[in-house]
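STRUCTURE REQUEST FORM
Protein name: Amino acid transporter transmembrane domain-containing protein
Source organism: Chironomus riparius
Requested output: structure tokens
Priority: standard
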Amino acid sequence: MSMRMSEICLTENNNNEERYKVAPASINVEKGALADYDPFRERKVDHPTSDMDTLTHLLKASLGTGILAMPMAFSYSGLVTGIFATIATALVCTHCAYVLVKCAHTLYYRSRRTTMSFSEVAEVAFQNGPAWAKPWAQFMKHFINYGLFITYFGTCSVYTVIIAENFQQLIEHYFGWKGDPRIFISMLLIPLILLSWVPNLKYLAPFSSVANVFMGVGLLITFYYCTTDMPPISERKLHTSLIQIAPFFGIVIFAMEAIGVVMPLENSMRTPQHFIGICGVLNKGMGGVTMVYILLGFVGYVKYGNDAAGSITLNLPIEEIPAQIVKILIALAVYCTFGLQFYVCLEIGWDFIKDKFTKRPLMVNYMMRTVLVTAAVLLAVAVPTIGPFVGLLGAFCFSILGLLVPVFIEMVTYWEQGFGKFNWIIWKNVIVCIFGVLALIFGSKDAIADIVKLYSNNGFENGLYETTAGAIDGFLETTAGPLA
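Status: completed
Returned output:
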């Protein structure tokens, strides 16, 4: 490039030696250096999504089943602390997604590319970064790809268990038939394969819209139960100690985190510039999500106190029809969300094999979709108690991929441009890393506790059905939200 990426000033010290003073360069400087290239104008997408389509997908990705664990999260934090801690957590998660997309837009200009996956953003950033970062480029790409694929594939498998369990509870309540969970899981194979055949995010948008409606109605009914005969707020704690609040961050970070779908959504947009910005799609979506999380956490904790379950639906009276409707709606919402989560696996898998099948790519693509869904269902059939294991994997991967990796990408991307006055970007990223480490420690701790509880002697004595239900409860407590 003919123009330097950073503004470099030469100064002289007392020994008449020249040294560089690196100052942050404006993004307009970088765009001016490549005035002949606009990655957004050059982008060609067969079926681009509108801003509203993208917002719908983002809401579904972030407003998942993890929100049902918010009352329990507030039981760890208290009412007042929970409100401010939820806002702080939302700011961190949103900022990390913002940083990832911002770096991608910067790297589009540098590399003259129009789209990148999460792993490709990391690869290009490290390839074009300082000398010490270049050898890590391939490692970062493979680490992100494998982490996302395994975590989201496991999530898809758990989703089949969640759907099956909700319908099984209703059938048992009405007909008294306590069947094998594997039968209900197997019955989902064909519907899930048909959903996986939806070709792209543009045509998945209606499913996300329907899922948002199902989840919204289910939450409204849940709000009705939570606000009926509420005890006075004075009976609930307002604050807790730092030690007691730690699990709160583990729950809320994973409930809000949706880093795996950020770049696929941005890559499919007709106007990707609108994804970030003060009034961008990202901020609009996460702002609304944060308010709903706070509201349910607040009223749910006031209603049930320390008895709030890992999924607030477990506190609802199963014998009442509105509570049964909630279970049906959430099961249907999870089914409609399956396609969005599956798309992450599909994109990674297809990028890995597409160069080997150039003759009939469409047929191979749909065969791969069918094989992956079948494998996810078979995994759920073989191990219907897989929830806590995926929870542990999600706690490990999403704390690193969702919080730590984006700030490392930012550091490498803008290494030559500097880190602002007083190196404020470095200090900001230190705070984000602390959040990431807390999420890793407490998310993993809770998931391991669920695994130990699951395979204790009591778990085996209660039988497969109760064990599966407990596994799903544990999964919702730790990682269902980010994956939902």
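Reviewer notes: Residues 1-29, 457-469, 477-484 have pLDDT under 50 and may be disordered. The longest strand covers residues 7-12.
Form closed.
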